[in-house]
Amino acid sequence: MPSWKWKWVNAFFRRPSMPSMPSTPTKPLRSPVKPQNKTLYSYDARKSLWCPTSEASGTSSDYHPNAPLFSLVSWNVDFAAPLVVRRFQAALSHLEQLLSSTPPPPPTIVLLQEVHSSCFKPLLSNAFIRKFYQVTNISSPHSYSTITLVPHSLASLVSSVSRIPFAETRMQRDCLYFDLAVPMSGGPAPKTLRFRIANTHLESLSGFGDRARPKQLEAISTLLTASGVDGGLVAGDMNSISPSDQNLPEEVGLSDAWLATGAVKNTETGETGDTGEAEGHTWGYQPRCQYPPRRLDKILTVGKLEAVELQRVGVGLKVEGRATMWVSDHYSLFAKISLSS
């Protein structure tokens, strides 16, 4: 692990002045910020390029309102370690294997964090992604960022896509979200409900980070419970590193999916052997270090949407070369999400 990242890890557990970061931090934004309206992009095989879905041909939907269930993957893929493109390609291969299993999971939304700008080319040229997914962005707004992949089978239900910068951040963090208008057949009459799905990477480090994360998650909670939104979900790297982070989801009105579903034993090879509360840890194993593993990554829900299954994936995943590298220092979370009317 590079020396700067050890400094970052050290800062997780103490409160000195903030260490230098690999990217230039921005000054905290103190004025109100507004969502930036975005669009989904689809690969158009006829044009051999990615373009706004409204301009693409050949996309379709096979969503069945009688089965209001989808899956979700959230993964911090680590922009900072060496071999960033090779590691990212390995992560994509692992996702393809996971999502191509028999029987296949329900339509699966993929939320990625820490995607380096150099990884967009392999992402957008990946045959599996081109065939089955639409994406929220085809470039990175910064040196690294979040991106969400929406399966074609759900994309026709997407009514809007937005990215909103946090009002207070020194690391250019934001919330990327989209709305699903889902036809529901239960009850006395069919109706369409609006569900909001958010992808985020909350502020890192202690000190300023401790003060920023509650405001950032509260802002997300406000988005997920806005008027006209029937249910919401946010997933990503919550950087839960301080005692003040432990009850933060509940304090802002969100339900922690891991606590709601209970510990689910990981079914992948490379199992850590964790039991009980430790089964939720997503960081601290790859590699092991002097600090204890922690549950930094979370899926949080509210309203008529809940996680019914949750497990860690990407456990023990490596790429081979002159030096063996972990694909990411984070495990991924894989959940099944149920919608109710």
Automatic annotation (TrEMBL):
Keyword Nucleotide-binding tagged = no
Task: List the residue ranges of the region (Disordered).
Answer: 267-286
Q: Name one GO molecular function term.
A: 5'-tyrosyl-DNA phosphodiesterase activity
GO biological process terms, alphabetically, are: double-strand break repair
State any GO CC term: cytoplasm
Mainly resides where? Answer: nucleus
Q: Which Gene3D superfamilies match?
A: Endonuclease/exonuclease/phosphatase
User: Where in the numbering of this chain does the Endonuclease/exonuclease/phosphatase domain appear?
Assistant: 73-330
Q: Where in the cell is it found?
A: Nucleus, PML body
Keywords of the record, alphabetical order, are: DNA damage, DNA repair, Endonuclease, Hydrolase, Magnesium, Metal-binding, Nuclease, Nucleus
InterPro entries referenced in this protein's UniProt entry, alphabetically? Endo/exonu/phosph_ase_sf, Endo/exonuclease/phosphatase, TDP2-like
Q: Which Pfam family is one of this chain's hits? A: Exo_endo_phos
- List the cofactors: Mg(2+); Mn(2+)
Q: Which domain of life is it from?
A: Eukaryota
Question: What is this protein's name?
Answer: Endonuclease/exonuclease/phosphatase
